[in-house]
């Protein structure tokens, strides 16, 4: 230790020097500053902040800077860049970036899930399944992987494997979306009872989910269980008074029972939320039709047809309205278009035959009736109208055969249900039976005065002297039946499905601020 000399005075006035020890630390050489290594994750917080604020341009600028500093090794920056590409619709670019993330972190199941999701969005379902299976090896308890595998199998029409994966997802973790997809599988298979059971379990698990309540109500409505349908639709409206699907379904039920003004009031509420809805304008049009405001009905149906030009039900109703207004050429146009989209519906061929009869094309009308008889095994009016057409030119033998076939269908309907037939149909059948000298033993149910909600179709074939042309009430009743069937069902419910959406994977949320980004289901 060095000494420091400090001058001092003695008593005699002579200078003396006093020595004090001095620390040697100040004399040591200074150490060099430690080198600064680049931190790969130092900008992750800023990237996350811009992303959740949806400020994607600023986010991409920070990502670009971060990747330049880290020489492209920042996994989180690449991950978020891929998410932004996907949001912008650049699915292929996002796939390549997620694959890069998977290379940087091969043990991350989340990166593989994102790769599989991009493949799914590109329509490569088999490749997506392979990647999801690889992700499942890294994380066997992830419900989302099982759920997404089930969705992929749905697109490949492998419903048994899809059900297995979805049940596995429910065993791992119960979610509303998984129940919805499982119910859709049963609807695709045409098993309404199993679909209802699945949705009932889903409602027990999530009683406030308006989508589940609405779907369950619509399924009950399709089966004709109106009390339970109204109950579930009412519960859906209790939790969400603006749920347009539930309001539309409730309006359809009121419309079925002839409460056109109340139904229109409901539809006004729906129009405020979803103005451009084809089912909405279809049902509004049929309400006007029920009120005999035919021009307004055609205007609304034309709007529905503009919004959904390939919907056969709208074309069907347009054909009915034009038949009622005796505009047979226009009716032929719309009914022909409906047949192109729904070629297996016998009733469409019958209505087409009615239009052809009034256009004086008897031969093609016979062909249309023959096809209707071949396709429709339950509706006695098809045979009755065909018999009338055959009787007019004197083909009594063929007319008798059709009349007898009608009698068989009527007997079956009486045995299997308490259906009451339209009074005009009964009168026409009795007159035709008298002309053919048959039908005395045919016992009809009590005729009804109001045919609006009963079983009926229309016949406007040119009558003989004993016949009277059927009025517009027949077409009205059939039109209302169609409007009531125009419901919102999940995808896969056959021709009656509306507001359908294809199965979708859980959406990715905002990425977490960490070096190994994760994905959770919204």
Automatic annotation (TrEMBL):
Protein name: BBSome complex member BBS4
TPR repeat start and end residues: 109-142, 176-209, 210-243, 312-345
Residue numbers spanned by region Disordered: 448-522
UniProt cross-references to Pfam families, sorted A to Z: TPR_11, TPR_8
Organism: Homo sapiens (Human)
One CC-aspect GO term: centriolar satellite
Protein family according to the UniProt entry: Belongs to the BBS4 family.
Localization, UniProt: Cell projection, Cilium membrane; Cell projection, Cilium, Flagellum; Cytoplasm, Cytoskeleton, Microtubule organizing center, Centrosome, Centriolar satellite
Assembly and interaction partners: Part of BBSome complex, that contains BBS1, BBS2, BBS4, BBS5, BBS7, BBS8/TTC8, BBS9 and BBIP10. Interacts with PCM1 and DCTN1. Interacts with DC28B. Interacts with ALDOB and C2CD3. Interacts with PKD1. Interacts with CEP290. Interacts with DLEC1.
């Amino acid at each position: 230790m060095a000494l420091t000399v400090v001058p001092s005075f003695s008593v005699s006035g002579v200078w003396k020097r006093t020595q004090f020890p001095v620390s040697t630390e100040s004399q040591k050489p200074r150490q060099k500053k430690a080198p600064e290594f680049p931190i790969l994750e130092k900008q992750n917080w800023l990237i996350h902040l811009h992303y959740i604020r949806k400020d994607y341009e600023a986010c991409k600028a920070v990502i670009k800077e971060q990747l330049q500093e880290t020489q492209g090794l920042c996994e989180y920056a690449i991950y978020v860049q891929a998410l932004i590409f996907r949001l912008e619709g650049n699915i292929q670019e996002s796939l390549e970036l997620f694959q890069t993330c998977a290379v940087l972190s091969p043990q991350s199941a989340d990166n593989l899930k994102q790769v599989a999701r991009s493949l799914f969005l590109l329509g490569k379902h088999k490749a997506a399944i392979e990647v999801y299976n690889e992700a499942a090896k890294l994380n066997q308890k992830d419900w989302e992987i099982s759920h997404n595998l089930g969705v992929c199998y749905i697109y490949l029409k492998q419903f048994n494997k899809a059900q297995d994966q979805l049940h596995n997802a429910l065993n791992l973790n119960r979610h509303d979306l998984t129940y919805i997809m499982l119910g859709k599988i049963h609807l695709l298979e045409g098993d309404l009872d199993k679909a209802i059971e699945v949705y009932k379990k889903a409602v027990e698990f999530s009683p406030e989910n308006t989508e589940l309540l609405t779907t369950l109500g619509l399924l009950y409505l399709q089966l004709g269980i109106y009390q339970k349908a109204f109950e579930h639709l009412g519960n859906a409206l209790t939790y969400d008074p603006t749920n347009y699907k539930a309001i539309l379904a409730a309006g359809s039920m009121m419309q079925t029972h002839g409460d056109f003004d109340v139904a229109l009031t409901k539809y006004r509420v729906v129009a405020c939320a979803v103005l451009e809805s084809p089912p909405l304008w279809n049902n509004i049009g049929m309400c006007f039709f029920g009120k005999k405001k035919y021009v307004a009905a055609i205007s609304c149906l034309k709007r529905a047809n503009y919004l959904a030009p390939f919907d056969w039900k709208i074309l069907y109703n347009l054909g009915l309205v034009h038949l009622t207004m005796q505009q047979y050429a226009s009716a032929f146009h719309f009914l022909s278009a409906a047949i192109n989209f729904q070629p297996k519906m016998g009733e469409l061929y019958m209505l087409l035959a009615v239009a052809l009869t009034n256009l004086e094309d008897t031969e093609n009308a016979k062909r249309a009736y023959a096809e209707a008889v071949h396709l429709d095994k339950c509706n006695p009016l098809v045979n009755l109208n065909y018999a009338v057409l055959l009787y007019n030119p004197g083909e009594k033998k063929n007319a008798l055969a059709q009349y007898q076939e009608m009698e068989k269908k009527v007997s079956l309907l009486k045995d299997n249900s308490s259906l009451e037939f339209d009074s005009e149909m009964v009168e026409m059948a009795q007159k035709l039976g008298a002309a053919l000298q048959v039908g005395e033993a045919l016992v009809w149910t009590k005729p009804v005065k109001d045919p609006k909600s009963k079983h009926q179709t229309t016949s406007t074939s040119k009558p003989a002297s004993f016949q009277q042309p059927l009025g517009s009430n027949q077409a009205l009743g059939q039109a209302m039946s169609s409007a009531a069937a125009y419901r919102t069902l999940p995808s896969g419910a056959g021709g009656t499905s509306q507001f359908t959406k294809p199965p979708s994977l859980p959406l990715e949320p905002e990425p977490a601020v960490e070096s190994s980004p994760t994905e959770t289901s919204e």
